[in-house]
Protein: LysR family transcriptional regulator
Amino acid sequence: MQLNLEWLRTFKAIYETGTLSAAAQELFISQPGVSLHLNSLEAYTGHKLFDRSPRKMVPTEKGKVMYNFVLDPLRKLEAVEQHFHKSSKAERPTISLGMCFETFQYTLEEHIASLPFNLIIKFGEYPQMQQDLDNGLLDLIVTPQPGQQQNLQYKPFSKERIVLIAGSRTDTAPLRELLQQPRKTEAANWLKQHIWYSTAADMEHLKNFWLKNFDQHPDFRPNYIVPNICSIIRCLSDNEGFSVVPHFLCAEALEAGQIELVWEGSSPLENTLYFGTRKKTIYQKEIDQLQELFISKWKAPEAVMA
Structure:
Protein backbone atom coordinates (compact mmCIF):
# COMPACT_ATOMS: atom_id res chain seq x y z
CA MET A 1 0.00 0.00 0.00
CA GLN A 2 1.30 3.48 -0.92
CA LEU A 3 0.63 6.65 1.03
CA ASN A 4 -1.98 8.82 -0.68
CA LEU A 5 -1.62 12.59 -0.38
CA GLU A 6 -5.43 12.97 -0.22
CA TRP A 7 -5.46 10.91 2.99
CA LEU A 8 -3.22 13.53 4.60
CA ARG A 9 -5.37 16.40 3.33
CA THR A 10 -8.42 14.73 4.82
CA PHE A 11 -6.60 14.04 8.09
CA LYS A 12 -5.65 17.72 8.36
CA ALA A 13 -9.24 18.83 7.66
CA ILE A 14 -10.65 16.49 10.33
CA TYR A 15 -8.03 17.66 12.85
CA GLU A 16 -8.80 21.33 12.22
CA THR A 17 -12.61 21.14 11.93
CA GLY A 18 -13.21 18.50 14.59
CA THR A 19 -15.88 16.47 12.78
CA LEU A 20 -16.19 14.25 9.71
CA SER A 21 -19.12 16.24 8.34
CA ALA A 22 -17.30 19.58 8.65
CA ALA A 23 -14.23 18.09 6.99
CA ALA A 24 -16.40 16.80 4.14
CA GLN A 25 -17.87 20.28 3.60
CA GLU A 26 -14.42 21.89 3.60
CA LEU A 27 -13.04 19.36 1.10
CA PHE A 28 -16.23 19.21 -1.03
CA ILE A 29 -16.40 15.43 -0.78
CA SER A 30 -18.91 13.07 0.79
CA GLN A 31 -18.73 12.11 4.44
CA PRO A 32 -18.23 8.42 3.51
CA GLY A 33 -15.25 9.55 1.44
CA VAL A 34 -13.77 11.31 4.48
CA SER A 35 -14.22 8.16 6.57
CA LEU A 36 -12.60 6.04 3.86
CA HIS A 37 -9.54 8.33 3.69
CA LEU A 38 -9.12 8.31 7.47
CA ASN A 39 -9.51 4.53 7.72
CA SER A 40 -6.97 4.06 4.93
CA LEU A 41 -4.45 6.37 6.64
CA GLU A 42 -4.88 4.62 9.98
CA ALA A 43 -4.41 1.25 8.29
CA TYR A 44 -1.28 2.53 6.56
CA THR A 45 0.28 3.98 9.72
CA GLY A 46 -0.91 1.17 11.99
CA HIS A 47 -2.08 3.70 14.58
CA LYS A 48 -5.42 5.09 15.70
CA LEU A 49 -5.30 8.81 14.94
CA PHE A 50 -8.62 9.94 16.47
CA ASP A 51 -10.94 8.86 19.26
CA ARG A 52 -14.44 8.92 17.82
CA SER A 53 -17.21 10.52 19.85
CA PRO A 54 -20.75 11.51 18.78
CA ARG A 55 -19.90 15.22 18.62
CA LYS A 56 -16.18 15.53 18.01
CA MET A 57 -13.16 13.70 16.65
CA VAL A 58 -10.49 13.91 19.38
CA PRO A 59 -6.90 13.42 18.15
CA THR A 60 -4.84 10.76 19.88
CA GLU A 61 -1.20 11.33 20.82
CA LYS A 62 -0.18 9.69 17.54
CA GLY A 63 -2.64 11.96 15.76
CA LYS A 64 -1.10 15.06 17.30
CA VAL A 65 2.37 13.93 16.27
CA MET A 66 1.15 13.21 12.75
CA TYR A 67 -0.46 16.66 12.49
CA ASN A 68 2.74 18.42 13.53
CA PHE A 69 4.70 16.47 10.92
CA VAL A 70 2.35 17.06 7.98
CA LEU A 71 1.09 20.60 8.66
CA ASP A 72 3.99 22.55 7.19
CA PRO A 73 4.51 20.33 4.09
CA LEU A 74 0.79 20.43 3.29
CA ARG A 75 0.66 24.20 3.60
CA LYS A 76 3.57 24.48 1.18
CA LEU A 77 1.82 22.17 -1.29
CA GLU A 78 -1.38 24.21 -0.99
CA ALA A 79 0.61 27.37 -1.70
CA VAL A 80 2.09 25.73 -4.81
CA GLU A 81 -1.40 24.75 -5.99
CA GLN A 82 -2.76 28.23 -5.41
CA HIS A 83 0.14 29.83 -7.28
CA PHE A 84 0.05 27.58 -10.33
CA HIS A 85 -3.73 27.09 -10.61
CA LYS A 86 -5.11 30.56 -10.01
CA SER A 87 -7.24 30.38 -13.15
CA SER A 88 -8.58 26.87 -12.57
CA LYS A 89 -12.27 26.36 -11.93
CA ALA A 90 -13.64 25.70 -8.46
CA GLU A 91 -13.91 22.06 -7.51
CA ARG A 92 -17.26 20.48 -8.31
CA PRO A 93 -19.45 19.74 -5.28
CA THR A 94 -20.58 16.15 -4.74
CA ILE A 95 -24.23 15.35 -3.95
CA SER A 96 -25.32 12.01 -2.49
CA LEU A 97 -28.85 10.95 -3.49
CA GLY A 98 -30.99 8.05 -2.29
CA MET A 99 -33.90 6.58 -4.27
CA CYS A 100 -35.17 3.34 -5.75
CA PHE A 101 -33.42 1.93 -8.83
CA GLU A 102 -36.43 2.38 -11.13
CA THR A 103 -36.85 6.05 -10.19
CA PHE A 104 -33.21 6.65 -11.07
CA GLN A 105 -33.57 4.98 -14.47
CA TYR A 106 -36.79 6.84 -15.27
CA THR A 107 -35.80 10.28 -14.00
CA LEU A 108 -32.07 10.92 -13.77
CA GLU A 109 -30.13 8.43 -15.87
CA GLU A 110 -30.40 10.40 -19.10
CA HIS A 111 -29.35 13.66 -17.39
CA ILE A 112 -26.28 12.43 -15.49
CA ALA A 113 -23.73 13.63 -18.06
CA SER A 114 -25.14 17.17 -18.11
CA LEU A 115 -25.18 17.81 -14.35
CA PRO A 116 -22.72 20.54 -13.26
CA PHE A 117 -21.82 18.63 -10.07
CA ASN A 118 -20.75 15.15 -9.03
CA LEU A 119 -23.48 12.72 -8.05
CA ILE A 120 -23.42 9.56 -5.93
CA ILE A 121 -26.55 7.40 -6.15
CA LYS A 122 -27.52 4.98 -3.39
CA PHE A 123 -30.28 2.38 -3.72
CA GLY A 124 -31.81 0.65 -0.72
CA GLU A 125 -34.67 0.48 1.75
CA TYR A 126 -36.42 3.74 2.62
CA PRO A 127 -35.88 3.58 6.42
CA GLN A 128 -32.14 3.20 5.87
CA MET A 129 -32.17 6.14 3.44
CA GLN A 130 -33.83 8.30 6.10
CA GLN A 131 -31.19 7.31 8.64
CA ASP A 132 -28.37 8.02 6.18
CA LEU A 133 -29.90 11.41 5.36
CA ASP A 134 -30.13 12.29 9.05
CA ASN A 135 -26.51 11.20 9.58
CA GLY A 136 -25.19 13.29 6.68
CA LEU A 137 -24.42 10.36 4.38
CA LEU A 138 -27.09 11.49 1.90
CA ASP A 139 -28.11 14.99 0.83
CA LEU A 140 -31.47 14.21 -0.80
CA ILE A 141 -33.83 11.24 -0.87
CA VAL A 142 -36.96 10.46 -2.91
CA THR A 143 -39.38 8.42 -0.81
CA PRO A 144 -43.08 7.53 -0.36
CA GLN A 145 -42.43 7.20 3.39
CA PRO A 146 -41.82 10.51 5.23
CA GLY A 147 -40.07 10.15 8.58
CA GLN A 148 -40.27 12.02 11.88
CA GLN A 149 -36.62 13.04 12.35
CA GLN A 150 -36.25 16.55 13.79
CA ASN A 151 -33.38 17.55 11.50
CA LEU A 152 -35.16 16.48 8.30
CA GLN A 153 -37.91 18.01 6.19
CA TYR A 154 -40.17 16.36 3.62
CA LYS A 155 -41.84 18.11 0.69
CA PRO A 156 -44.51 16.32 -1.39
CA PHE A 157 -44.02 16.75 -5.13
CA SER A 158 -46.05 14.08 -6.92
CA LYS A 159 -48.07 10.91 -6.60
CA GLU A 160 -47.45 7.45 -7.99
CA ARG A 161 -50.58 5.55 -8.97
CA ILE A 162 -50.42 1.77 -8.67
CA VAL A 163 -52.14 0.06 -11.61
CA LEU A 164 -52.80 -3.38 -13.06
CA ILE A 165 -51.07 -3.91 -16.40
CA ALA A 166 -50.88 -6.76 -18.91
CA GLY A 167 -48.76 -7.72 -21.88
CA SER A 168 -50.24 -6.57 -25.19
CA ARG A 169 -50.92 -10.17 -26.25
CA THR A 170 -52.99 -10.92 -23.14
CA ASP A 171 -56.73 -11.52 -23.67
CA THR A 172 -58.21 -9.22 -21.04
CA ALA A 173 -61.80 -9.17 -22.37
CA PRO A 174 -63.14 -11.78 -19.86
CA LEU A 175 -61.56 -9.86 -16.97
CA ARG A 176 -63.00 -6.53 -18.09
CA GLU A 177 -66.46 -8.06 -18.30
CA LEU A 178 -66.20 -9.41 -14.74
CA LEU A 179 -64.99 -6.06 -13.42
CA GLN A 180 -67.80 -4.11 -15.11
CA GLN A 181 -70.59 -6.19 -13.58
CA PRO A 182 -68.88 -6.08 -10.97
CA ARG A 183 -68.02 -9.63 -9.93
CA LYS A 184 -64.78 -9.00 -8.10
CA THR A 185 -64.39 -12.37 -6.44
CA GLU A 186 -64.64 -14.11 -9.81
CA ALA A 187 -62.29 -11.50 -11.31
CA ALA A 188 -59.72 -12.23 -8.59
CA ASN A 189 -59.99 -15.98 -9.20
CA TRP A 190 -59.64 -15.44 -12.94
CA LEU A 191 -56.46 -13.38 -12.43
CA LYS A 192 -54.93 -16.08 -10.22
CA GLN A 193 -55.08 -18.54 -13.12
CA HIS A 194 -52.80 -16.44 -15.30
CA ILE A 195 -49.11 -15.59 -15.51
CA TRP A 196 -47.85 -13.02 -13.00
CA TYR A 197 -44.62 -11.03 -12.74
CA SER A 198 -43.23 -9.31 -9.65
CA THR A 199 -40.01 -8.31 -7.91
CA ALA A 200 -38.72 -9.50 -4.57
CA ALA A 201 -38.52 -5.92 -3.28
CA ASP A 202 -41.94 -4.67 -4.45
CA MET A 203 -44.47 -7.31 -3.38
CA GLU A 204 -46.06 -4.46 -1.37
CA HIS A 205 -47.59 -3.02 -4.55
CA LEU A 206 -49.36 -6.29 -5.33
CA LYS A 207 -50.45 -6.85 -1.72
CA ASN A 208 -51.87 -3.34 -1.24
CA PHE A 209 -53.62 -3.28 -4.63
CA TRP A 210 -55.18 -6.71 -4.06
CA LEU A 211 -56.28 -5.92 -0.52
CA LYS A 212 -57.88 -2.61 -1.47
CA ASN A 213 -59.74 -3.86 -4.54
CA PHE A 214 -60.56 -7.49 -3.72
CA ASP A 215 -60.79 -7.23 0.10
CA GLN A 216 -58.36 -10.12 0.55
CA HIS A 217 -54.64 -10.80 0.66
CA PRO A 218 -53.16 -12.26 -2.55
CA ASP A 219 -52.90 -15.98 -1.81
CA PHE A 220 -50.86 -16.88 -4.88
CA ARG A 221 -47.22 -16.68 -5.83
CA PRO A 222 -46.12 -14.80 -8.96
CA ASN A 223 -44.69 -17.08 -11.64
CA TYR A 224 -41.65 -14.91 -12.31
CA ILE A 225 -39.64 -12.86 -9.79
CA VAL A 226 -37.34 -10.48 -11.70
CA PRO A 227 -34.74 -7.93 -10.51
CA ASN A 228 -36.78 -4.74 -10.86
CA ILE A 229 -39.95 -3.18 -12.27
CA CYS A 230 -38.21 -2.14 -15.49
CA SER A 231 -37.50 -5.85 -16.06
CA ILE A 232 -41.20 -6.61 -15.54
CA ILE A 233 -42.17 -4.11 -18.23
CA ARG A 234 -39.61 -5.49 -20.68
CA CYS A 235 -40.81 -9.07 -20.02
CA LEU A 236 -44.46 -8.13 -20.54
CA SER A 237 -43.85 -6.03 -23.66
CA ASP A 238 -45.50 -7.72 -26.66
CA ASN A 239 -46.13 -10.77 -24.47
CA GLU A 240 -48.71 -12.27 -22.09
CA GLY A 241 -49.10 -11.91 -18.32
CA PHE A 242 -50.02 -9.46 -15.55
CA SER A 243 -48.34 -7.26 -12.95
CA VAL A 244 -49.10 -4.40 -10.56
CA VAL A 245 -46.70 -1.46 -10.94
CA PRO A 246 -46.48 2.35 -10.55
CA HIS A 247 -47.96 4.05 -13.59
CA PHE A 248 -45.06 6.45 -14.20
CA LEU A 249 -42.67 3.56 -14.78
CA CYS A 250 -44.75 2.06 -17.57
CA ALA A 251 -46.08 5.22 -19.25
CA GLU A 252 -43.74 5.01 -22.25
CA ALA A 253 -44.47 1.30 -22.85
CA LEU A 254 -48.20 2.08 -22.66
CA GLU A 255 -47.85 4.85 -25.24
CA ALA A 256 -45.92 2.48 -27.50
CA GLY A 257 -48.65 -0.16 -27.23
CA GLN A 258 -46.27 -2.76 -25.80
CA ILE A 259 -48.37 -3.27 -22.68
CA GLU A 260 -51.97 -2.56 -21.72
CA LEU A 261 -53.36 -0.63 -18.75
CA VAL A 262 -56.10 -2.99 -17.56
CA TRP A 263 -57.46 -1.50 -14.35
CA GLU A 264 -56.74 1.24 -11.83
CA GLY A 265 -58.99 -0.37 -9.24
CA SER A 266 -62.37 0.67 -7.85
CA SER A 267 -60.64 3.75 -6.45
CA PRO A 268 -57.06 4.62 -7.39
CA LEU A 269 -54.29 3.40 -5.08
CA GLU A 270 -51.83 6.28 -4.85
CA ASN A 271 -48.65 6.91 -2.91
CA THR A 272 -47.48 10.47 -2.29
CA LEU A 273 -43.83 10.97 -3.20
CA TYR A 274 -41.64 13.25 -1.10
CA PHE A 275 -38.29 14.97 -1.35
CA GLY A 276 -36.42 14.48 1.92
CA THR A 277 -33.59 16.85 2.86
CA ARG A 278 -31.81 18.11 5.95
CA LYS A 279 -33.10 21.47 7.16
CA LYS A 280 -29.61 22.94 6.88
CA THR A 281 -27.49 22.20 3.82
CA ILE A 282 -24.73 23.88 1.85
CA TYR A 283 -25.95 22.22 -1.36
CA GLN A 284 -29.34 23.90 -1.74
CA LYS A 285 -28.62 25.07 -5.30
CA GLU A 286 -27.70 21.55 -6.46
CA ILE A 287 -30.64 19.99 -4.60
CA ASP A 288 -33.05 22.47 -6.22
CA GLN A 289 -31.73 21.51 -9.66
CA LEU A 290 -32.26 17.80 -8.98
CA GLN A 291 -35.77 18.43 -7.68
CA GLU A 292 -36.66 20.39 -10.82
CA LEU A 293 -35.59 17.40 -12.94
CA PHE A 294 -37.89 15.11 -10.98
CA ILE A 295 -40.86 17.46 -11.19
CA SER A 296 -40.44 18.04 -14.94
CA LYS A 297 -40.14 14.32 -15.68
CA TRP A 298 -43.09 12.99 -13.71
CA LYS A 299 -46.21 12.14 -15.68
CA ALA A 300 -49.63 12.04 -14.10
CA PRO A 301 -51.69 8.97 -15.12
CA GLU A 302 -54.90 9.44 -17.06
CA ALA A 303 -58.09 7.87 -15.80
CA VAL A 304 -58.86 4.52 -17.49
CA MET A 305 -62.23 2.81 -17.39
CA ALA A 306 -62.38 -0.92 -16.84
